[in-house]
């Protein structure tokens, strides 16, 4: 049984998951809010701190392991997902989390990211996306927009960015959610949903770097227009948005379209109902790729959440099957049973 399915006898509070270390991020950094949300999510899940492991790579976000009163592993650049896979396979009962940034997981760590998702390892990946390398002082990252001016692209980038959701779905991902750093309640809910999902879960947090990329997400987060430029998806709910939920998402041929309900012949019946659990990811991908550039709001919430076999469970079953067939319970027992043994003196 998964440890995340076991309710602790002790009712934990967010402070139970906080370490005694001083948090050393820049004042105003979005990482503070993400850390706060994670503490709250773990308290809501009520998993024992000693049954939890947080693995990170390199980057500002990867300092998060120091601020957790759990087991932690501050690993090397881009390898957090690979190490977290090892932790989960070695001890499937643990609740395993990965804290990573867009540079850490989508550049040098891109291969580990997509294969962890493809294998559907039962771990939770929190992907901080501020569209820049912050720790190394302001170079463009794999998610930086084309034309972005930075210290490493003084005349603007000549590359198109990765979209984390597109990579996740391309790797046959079973869970993808998105939130904004300052929306603690929504971020907490997304992390709880990710932990309850059986398989690789990816939670993209649109996070602000106040030093090197301040305001990068203002086009959707500013209170003046946020209601019109974001949509909070709810399982089984109509895809409505706007200050008074007066707008909705409808199908226009094979594409999505934002309309005002009650105008141009569109009624509430035309508005799509969100279903994150359908196996076909065609609509999920369209929802995940919505954005200001196509006249559609950015989708927040759980976009995809489907069931599939997990790598760690299947691996454990395979070992048990082989042990039963061979009668060998360990690797050393298997080695010593062979006749091809010699001793060097």
Structural overview:
- This protein is an alpha/beta fold.
- The chain has a domain at 3-216: Thiamin diphosphate (ThDP)-binding fold, Pyr/PP domains (Rossmann fold), CATH 3.40.50.
- It is 29% helix and 18% strand.
- The strands form 3 sheets. Strands 2-1-3-4-8-7-13-9 form an 8-stranded mixed β-sheet, with helices on both faces.
- Helix 1 crosses helix 6 and helix 3 crosses helix 4 (110-119).
- The longest helix is centred in the C-terminal third of the chain and has 16 residues, at 311-326.
- What is the helix fraction of residues, given as a range? 25-40%
Major sheet: 8 strands, mixed
Strand order of the largest sheet: 2-1-3-4-8-7-13-9
CATH superfamily of the domain at 3-216: Thiamin diphosphate (ThDP)-binding fold, Pyr/PP domains
Number of helices: 11
Order of helices and strands: HEEHEHHEEEHEHEHHEEEEHEHH
Instruction: Give the averaged pLDDT, no decimals.
Output: 94
Distance between the termini: 46 Å
Topology:
Blueprint: H1 31-45, E1 52-56, E2 71-74, H2 80-90, E3 95-101, H3 102-108, H4 110-119, E4 124-129, E5 132-133, E6 139-140, H5 164-170, E7 175-180, H6 184-196, E8 201-206, H7 218-221, H8 226-229, E9 230-232, E10 240-241, E11 247-252, E12 255-260, H9 282-288, E13 298-305, H10 311-326, H11 331-337
Parallel strand pairs: 1-2, 1-3, 3-4, 4-8, 7-8, 9-13
Antiparallel strand pairs: 5-6, 7-13, 10-11, 11-12
């Amino acid at each position: 049984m998964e440890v995340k399915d076991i309710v602790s006898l002790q009712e934990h509070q967010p402070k139970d998951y906080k370490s005694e270390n001083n948090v050393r991020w820049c004042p105003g950094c979005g990482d503070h809010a993400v850390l706060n949300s994670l503490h709250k999510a773990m308290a809501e899940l009520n998993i024992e701190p000693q049954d939890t492991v947080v693995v990170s790579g390199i980057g500002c976000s990867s300092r998060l392991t120091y601020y957790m009163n759990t087991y932690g592993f501050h690993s090397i650049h881009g390898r957090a997902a690979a190490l977290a896979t090892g932790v989960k396979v070695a001890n499937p009962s643990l609740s395993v989390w990965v804290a990573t940034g867009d540079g850490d997981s989508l550049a040098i760590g891109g291969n580990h990211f997509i294969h962890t998702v493809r294998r559907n390892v039962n771990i939770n990946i929190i992907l901080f996306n501020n569209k820049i390398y912050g720790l190394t002082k302001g170079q463009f990252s794999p998610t930086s927009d084309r034309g972005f001016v930075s210290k490493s692209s003084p005349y603007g980038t000549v590359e198109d960015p990765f979209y984390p959701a597109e990579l996740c779905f391309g790797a046959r991902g079973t869970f993808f959610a998105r939130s904004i750093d300052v929306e603690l309640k929504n971020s907490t809910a997304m992390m709880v949903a990710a932990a309850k999902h059986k398989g690789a879960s990816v939670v993209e947090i649109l996070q602000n770097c106040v030093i090197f990329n301040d305001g990068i997400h203002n086009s959707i987060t500013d209170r003046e227009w946020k209601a019109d430029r974001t949509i909070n998806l709810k399982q089984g709910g109509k895809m409505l948005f706007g200050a008074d939920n007066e707008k909705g998402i409808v199908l226009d041929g094979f594409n999505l379209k934002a309309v005002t309900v009650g105008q141009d012949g569109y009624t509430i019946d035309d508005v799509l109902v969100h279903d994150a659990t359908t196996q076909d990811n065609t609509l999920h991908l369209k929802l995940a790729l919505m954005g200001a550039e196509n006249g559609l709001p950015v989708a927040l919430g759980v976009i995809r959440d489907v069931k599939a076999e997990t790598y760690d469970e299947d691996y454990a079953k395979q070992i048990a099957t082989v042990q039963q067939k061979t009668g060998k319970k360990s690797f050393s027992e298997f080695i010593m049973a062979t006749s091809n043994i010699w001793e060097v003196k």
